[in-house]
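Hi U.,

Before I forget, here's the chain from the pilot set. I'm dumping it here mostly so it's searchable later in email.
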Amino acid sequence: MSDLKNFAAFKAAFVSEADAYSGITGSLALNSAGDRANGDFDFWAVRNDTWVRIGTYDGTSGVITIFP
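Structure:
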């Protein structure tokens, strides 16, 4: 079976490439869930028909902050 049809081999190659790559936003290494292991994230919600940032995640400290 070709590697193109072997999902496990594709996934391993993808994770290996992501772990080795560092771009303008930093490392693209992945965690066990397949999300970026490093980085800051924002949480957004729609309130009164407008997108509003309701929280943040600091990838360095691991702290989640939810805004009132």
